[in-house]
Amino acid sequence: MKRIGIITSGGDAPGTNACIRTLARRCFNAGITPVGVFDAWDGLIKGSVRDITRDDVTGIVQTAGTILRSSRSRLFLAAGDADKAKAALARHDIHGLCVIGGNGSQTAARLLAQSGFAVVGVPKTIDNDLAGTELTVGFLTAVEMVTHALDNLRATAESHNRVMVVEVMGRNVGWIAVEAAIAGGADLALVPEFPFTLDEICARLKTRHETHGRNYSIVVIAEGALDEQRVLDPQSGVADKLGRPKLGGVGANLAREIEIRLGYDARCTTLGYLQRSAAPCAADRILATRVCDRAFDLLVEGQSGVMAGLQGTKVVPVPLDDVAGKLKRVTPDYYRLAQVFG
Q: Which residue of 34, 93, 102, 211 has the fewest CB atoms within a 10 Å radius of its CB?
């Protein structure tokens, strides 16, 4: 294997550049040429491909984003798309590919591997929703960002007797909301996995304020969390390029309902892309280095159709059949921590 391609797709996540750096350096040391695919799968088809140099990866371990740029693509949604990707890779004399990304990316990697091309996946998404790995690159930094925001918002909430609602990312799973709520001492965490009613939420807030004598509360809500009556429905009716409803506004809707139902002063802060744009924390840089170091070994050893996943203290090959199309959801036991200690 003389030329290994590196592609980043899906949403950007802190630590992605550390992934690219690790793979490139392993290539340099092994006499293999690392080849960067720019602008994800669409860039591959358009020919946005060039060799990666040592200068390209110097000083990027601490930077956010991805030097290869990223996007979400409709490639691999139709029959024959894997063959299109294979043909594009062949045109650039790429013999194996490392796919750095989340669920959509690993699904694409699986299809490409099934078509006979050598592919190894790297788990990268701030949502931490990939099956087969305990942590994904970018998640811990996102949690740090949200926790820092909760620490700061607590001061203004207490100063003005407010309920602060903090909307965070999490379309289908609530790992960011739950872990940040635990770390930041939030009073409530609302996530897509566990249904709730506005009556229950208001009752809990009323008990905290009027029985326990608290003058403020912090509520963390994932963007995809919905009450059972769908009063908070954040779907705008507008879809993204993959046909998924664009989300946003559930936090503001919740703050409004709290004011109407309880008469408390409630405000919403939506953290949005701040969660994915920070410099990676040390833990994410280390995780990126470890999983990509293992991914490189797997690829040159001839393994394909696997992802380098963290299980316990070890990075192991996980079949993409066990990853693609599956979501790692917040468990009841884990969610309990956010509820009991809120």
A: 211
pTM of the model: 0.95
Give me the half-sphere count of Cα atoms (radius 13 Å) on the Cβ side of residue 160: 13
Task: Enumerate the active-site residues.
Answer: 127
Q: Are the beta carbons of 72 and 9 closer than 8 angstroms?
A: yes
Q: Do 166 and 269 form a contact (C-beta atoms < 8 A)?
A: yes
- pLDDT tens profile 193-214: 999 999 999 999 999 999 999 9
CA distances from residue 30 to 297, 299, 306 in whole angstroms, order as listed: 11, 13, 21
Rounded alpha-carbon distances, angstroms, from residue 148 to 123, 153, 169, 257, 335 = 25, 9, 15, 26, 20
Q: Identify which has the larger pLDDT, 339 or 122.
A: 122
Give the integer Cα–Cα distance in Å for 307 and 315: 10
One-letter-per-residue 3-state SS of 88-124: HHHHCCCCEEEEEECHHHHHHHHHHHHCCCCEEEEEE
- Domains plus CATH for the chain? 3-138+278-322 (3.40.50.450), 141-275 (3.40.50.460)
pLDDT band at 341 (very low <50, low <70, confident <90, very high): confident
Pairing mode, if any, of strands 33-37 and 49-51? antiparallel
How far is it, in rounded angstroms, from Cα 161 to Cα 216? Answer: 5
